[in-house]
Design goal:
single chain, alpha/beta, Rossmann fold, seven-stranded parallel β-sheet, 7 helices, globular, disordered N terminus
Length: about 240
C-alpha cells in the first residue's frame, strides 16, 4: 500500500465558507487529505484538497464525491455532514419551497453521502461520521420558531444514535455536534446582539468552537452516538 493510500481522508460538505471551510483547514492540520463539497466551491491550490462542485441533495454529487475520494486518495475515513439550511419562520408561514429545500439539503443530502461513505468505511474496516445539527432540536425557543429545522435536524440526531448502534461492532463511529448561535456568514452582524441574548452565556459562539468539537470527536475512539452540544448553555435551560 502506498503512503498516499495510508493517509486518512475526510469528506466535508458545505465546505466553501464558514464552518465548512474552517473544517477543511482543521482536517488538513490533522494530516488528512480532504474532499470538499459545495455548490459554489472553487479549486484548491493544495494538492491534498480536492474540491467537488455540486448539490449535496443530488445523489450524483454524493457518488462523484466518494468516487473522487477513492480515486484520488484511496479511501474515506471521515465524513462531516456540514451542509444544511436553516429557515426560522412561524410554522404557518413556511412555503412549499421552504419545505422542499430544507428536506432536500438537510435530509436527502445526509442520506445519499452518508450511505455511500459508510459502505466504503465498512469495506476498509472503519471510519467516523459527524453531522452538524442545531440545539433548537432539543430546546425549542418561541423567539426562534423553526419547526422545519427541528423536523429535519432532529431526525438527523435520532439517525446518529441509530447508526452508532447499528455499526458499533464494525468500526464505524457516528456522532453529531449541536451548535447554538455561531458567528458565521449566515448571520449578518446586525443580528449578532439579538442572537447573543438568546444564549445563557449572552454571547455567540465562534466557528472555532464547532470545529474544535468536531476535532475532539474525531480523536475520541470510545465516543459514538454522542450529540455534543456547543451552545453556550442552551441545552441546559434558560
Amino acid at each position: 500500500m502506498s503512503i498516499q493510500q495510508q493517509q486518512k481522508v475526510a469528506l466535508i460538505t458545505g465546505a466553501s465558507k464558514g464552518i465548512g471551510a474552517a473544517l477543511v483547514d482543521a482536517y488538513r492540520k490533522l494530516g488528512y487529505a480532504v474532499v470538499a463539497v459545495s455548490r459554489t466551491i472553487s479549486p484548491s491550490d493544495d494538492p491534498d484538497v480536492l474540491t467537488i462542485q455540486g448539490d449535496v441533495a443530488d445523489r450524483a454529487t454524493a457518488e462523484e464525491a466518494i468516487a473522487a475520494a477513492v480515486g484520488r486518495f484511496g479511501r474515506v475515513d471521515a465524513l462531516v455532514n456540514n451542509a444544511g439550511i436553516f429557515v426560522a419562520k412561524p410554522f404557518t408561514d413556511y412555503t412549499l419551497d421552504d419545505y422542499a429545500a430544507m428536506r432536500a439539503v438537510n435530509l436527502d443530502g445526509f442520506f445519499h453521502i452518508t450511505q455511500l461513505a459508510v459502505a466504503r468505511m465498512l469495506g476498509q474496516g472503519g471510519g467516523h461520521v459527524v453531522t452538524i445539527t442545531t440545539s433548537l432540536v432539543d430546546n425549542a425557543d418561541a423567539r426562534v420558531p423553526s419547526v422545519l429545522a427541528s423536523l429535519t435536524k432532529g431526525g438527523l440526531q435520532s439517525a446518529t444514535k441509530s447508526l452508532a448502534i447499528e455499526y458499533a461492532t464494525r468500526g464505524v463511529r457516528v456522532n453529531a455536534v449541536s451548535p447554538g448561535s455561531i458567528k458565521t456568514p449566515m448571520h449578518p452582524e446586525e443580528t449578532h446582539e439579538a442572537l447573543a441574548s438568546l444564549q445563557p452565556v449572552r454571547r455567540m459562539g465562534e466557528m472555532s468552537d464547532v470545529v474544535d468539537a468536531v476535532v475532539f470527536l474525531e480523536k475520541a475512539p470510545f465516543v459514538t452516538g454522542e450529540i455534543l452540544h456547543v451552545d453556550g448553555g442552551v441545552s441546559a435551560g434558560h
